[in-house]
Structure formats: structure tokens, C-alpha cells
Amino acid sequence: MELENGNIFNQNVSEGDIDWLFCVELNSSDSFRKLIGPIIFPEIDDFVHIHSWRSISNSYGESDIIWLIEHHTKGRLIGLIENKINTSAQPKQFERYLQRAESYIDEGLAKEFSIVLLSPESYSSTDSVYYPVKISYENIIEWLQAKKTERSNYLSTIYQAAINKKQRSSVTVNEEILCFREHVWNLAKSEFPLLNVADPHADSNDHWIKMNYAGYTLIYKTYQKGYKYTMSVVDLQLDGRGGDVELLEHKFSGNLKETGISIVKTGKSASFRLVVPMIEPPKYEEAKVRSALTAAMKLKNFWMSVNKNF
Predict the structure, then answer these.
(1) Residue ranges of the chain with pLDDT lower than 70?
(2) For helices 15-28 and 30-40, what crossing angle results, to 10°?
(3) For the segment 50-65, what is each residue's pLDDT rounded down to a tens digit?
(4) What is the DSSP pairing of strand 269-276 with strand 48-58?
(5) How high is the pLDDT of residue 8?
(6) Rounded distance, CA 172 to CA 274, Å?
(7) CA angle at residue 240 from 236 to 243, to 5 degrees?
(8) The predicted structure's pLDDT at residue 10
(9) Over the range 9-25, which residues count as b (16 or more CB within 10 Å of their CB) and which as e?
(10) What pLDDT is attached to residue 169?
(11) In a designed cystine with 209, which of 67, 213, 216, 220 is the match (CB 3.0 to 4.6 A)?
(12) Which three-class secondary structure state does DSSP give residue 83?
């Protein structure tokens, strides 16, 4: 049998395999560090590599890869890297990465942090939009192939096998939830063009509707306990401000009178909240959704009016 490009067999590549390859390169290749460093820490020019670790946990969960470096003016910087091929995000996965990073800063392990998603370009999940830094397998393959060594060419085939695995796998789309999201999106386009409602095919299995802006996110949420829906709200979410709820209440108490807006802690975030008529996705009730989108506009306009003084 003729061996053509080494492809007689399909390699089964796991996320753990990629974790190790990425971690090994960080710990052993200065040229790889020079590629990755400016992506993870774009404001630095040069740095000293300290160490990279794979599968590190604390009370807030596990990071796939951690990288610690030293900068001559900023001090120690830490990168937390989540690696995904095709698995779905765990509940509140990005939020727990943020909690871990903040805990490392509180412990004095570093001065600043960066949270990174490492994945094929086509990867998407319920929280992938929240990662501020993304590194694609395709970028790494391009770098490896440019080196034109036997080792780099082989390593590029492993990343390519992971991409092929992603392409072969098919995520089962919940067609009912997708239909619900499409209805919301179409109503928003027609009657609320100033709302940045996310594409219905992004996170198509999630009934929460997100609207992303610089510095905050509007989220139309319906909470459920078990199989029972309990409450629908629209939140204007300020990421990482969960400890500032009392400060926000004090500062904006006058602005909030008679608006129906409350301030609540949502995980590590603080949110300005309006309760809206409850729906039970995937059932679409246009009047109730219109009321929720109206509430989203109210929160957006409120924040635009007060944020300039904040």
C-alpha cells in the first residue's frame, strides 16, 4: 500500500492532545512564544517566559493551559487558555475563567491577566463571543508550515486532524429554539433596528438572546428551574462589576426612581434589570417578546444617558 502524505489512517486527536502540544511549544520554542505573546498580551513589546502549565485547577475550576511571563514594566502577566475542538461550553465557563484569573491576581501571582480561546476558526459556543482573545488552529498551522522542518510539518498535521474532527462532527441543532430565535431576530430587525440582536444561528440551542455593545451586554433571559420556567427579564450586564452593586445603587438611585429598573448581582457581574412578561421558549409570543425588546431599548437609552457621568 502506498503511503501518500501519511494519510492511510485518520488520527483521533483530542483536546488534551492539543493542550500538551501548545504547552510544550510555549515551554520550548522561543519563536512560538514570540508568535503567541503579542496575541495574548497585545500591549507588551518584549517579555521573559517563566513557565506554562497544562490542566491547572483551583476552587473556581480548571484552566486548560496557563502561561506566566514577566514584563519589564508591567511585572508578571498570566494567560488562561481554554482549548476547544468541538465540545460545547460548560455552564458559565467563561465566567469561571474570569473568576480564576481574578483570584490569581488577588493571590499576587500576577499583576494582569488575559483570557484566551484556542480553537478552530469555525468553533462557536454559548460563550465564545465573550473571550477577548482568540487564537485559531489555522494560525498555528500557518506558522508551523512556514518553518518547513520535518517536525513542524508533522505537528501541523495534528492540528489539521483536530480541525478535520471538528468538521466531521455535527452539533445537533434544536430546531425549535432556532425558530424561536429567528422570530425574535426578525421582530428586532423590523421594529427595534437600534438593538444589536445576535444572529439567530449563533448559539442556536440557547434561548437567551444577547445584544453586545462596547462595555456592556443586553441579555433577554428566561430562567428555569428544572423543566419549569420561572421568570423572564432583560439585563444590562456590566461584566466583572458584581462587587459594585451597592456603589451602583448609591450612584444611580435618583436616576432609577419610577423606572422599574433594579440593580442585581449576576455572577461576577452587575446588571440593571427590568422584569418582563414571562415566556416559555421555544413557544413564541410576539406581544411578550415585543415588550421585552422595548425593555431592552429602555435599558440601552438609560445607560447611554447616565454612563457619560460614570
Answers:
(1) 1-11, 166-173, 202-205, 308-310
(2) 110
(3) 999 999 988 888 899 9
(4) unpaired
(5) 63
(6) 33
(7) 95
(8) 67
(9) eeeebebebbbebbbeb
(10) 55
(11) 220
(12) strand
Phi/psi zone of residue 148: left (φ > 0), alpha (ψ -120 to 50 degrees), beta?
Answer: left
* Rounded Cα–Cα distance for residues 161 and 120 (Å): 11
pLDDT score at 226: 72
pLDDT at 167: 66
Name the residue type at position 49: H
pLDDT digits 0-9 by tens, 238-264: 988 889 999 999 999 888 888 999 999
Could you tell me where the beta strands, DSSP code E, fall in the chain?
A: 48-58, 61-71, 75-83, 112-119, 133-136, 209-213, 216-225, 228-238, 262-266, 269-276
Integer Cα distance of 86 and 122 in angstroms: 9
pTM for the whole structure:
0.55
Cα 239 off chain centre by? 12
Number of Cβ within 10 Å of residue 238's Cβ equals 22
Angle of CA points 266, 267, 273, to nearest 5°: 5
Cα–Cα distances (Å) from 228 to 26, 88, 205, 232, 281, in that order, read 47, 23, 17, 12, 11
Looking at residue 170, its pLDDT comes to 47
Nearest to 180 by CA among 198, 201, 207, 203: 207
> 3-class DSSP state for residue 309?
helix
